[in-house]
Amino acid sequence: MPSPVTFPPDLPPHIVDDAVRAALVEDLGLAGDLTSQATLPPAATAAAAIISRERGIVAGLRLAAAAFRLIGDGIKFEPLVADGTTIKPGDVVARVSGPARLVLSAERTALNFLTHLCGIATLTAAFVEAIAGTGAKITDTRKTLPGLRALEKYAVRCGGGSNHRFGLGDAVLIKDNHIAVAGGVTQVLAAAKANLGHLVAVEIEVDTLDQFEEALAAGAKIVLLDNMDVALLKRAVAINAGRAVLEASGGVKLDRVRAIAETGVDYISTSQITAAAPPLDLGLDIEIRT
User: Fold this and answer.
1) What is the span of the domain harbouring residue 73?
2) pLDDT tens across 1-53, in order?
3) Does the annotation count 142 as an active-site position?
4) Is the separation of the CB atoms in 252 and 230 below 8 Å?
5) Predicted TM-score of the model (pTM)
6) Are residue 141 and residue 247 in the same domain, yes or no?
7) Is 175 in the active site?
8) 143 in active site
9) Pick the catalytic residue: 137, 143, 234, 235?
10) How far does the chain reach from its first CA to its final CA, in angstroms?
11) Of 110, 120, 221, 245, which one is least surrounded by beta carbons within 10 A?
């Protein structure tokens, strides 16, 4: 059987520009870059290199490029690697040149996006590597910084992970509070089936094996096994016998993700890769030209 065709991750251009414009407005305020305006002559030019200080995965180069493009005319941004590339300390990620005032005014916005998204891609790659060969896939959650969800989920893809739903309108995820209000697992699944179109995916979260068996009996096709230990996950996989797609979630950390994957679940979702990823250490080293 031929391998499935895979494509590199991408971001819609309007999302990139909207995010970067908002960040530049936040940083420049009403007066612009007072430091650069007060200390650098208008005609001064500069060349710079964005350099990695540690090993990691690149993500966010288009946002960095947009920061230098949208700050003003005359800046050249040259990426030297692609998003998804592994880099090591000392590697040059990109080069920038042009009017010195503009280069320095956009520097922090560009690096903020890059360091944050590279950090997410790097931690995601560590999770993906930890479960290699198990058949399970790492996926993210909706625990993202407000306004940055599309960017953070893009970084997850750069790190080799997969995306869960992007928002409440993508798919149905019935959680414990929905079950409580609706009156039970069987009732809530029946209500979902009666009120949704045939193209809408439905996943239900369960906390116990009793709930899990009830969900299967009610026809659930995707089940999230929430906060179950490895022993319970193994029992759930055996009970399932391939009937539903299984996702493990809750308390997923890097040091135990391999054990979770080896239970036989299909997906492992974790907020760690977006909500707890440390920024990758990148810096912009500049050489002033007169």
Assistant:
1) 13-128+277-289
2) 677 888 888 999 999 999 999 999 999 999 999 999 999 999 999 999 999 99
3) no
4) no
5) 0.95
6) yes
7) yes
8) yes
9) 143
10) 61
11) 221
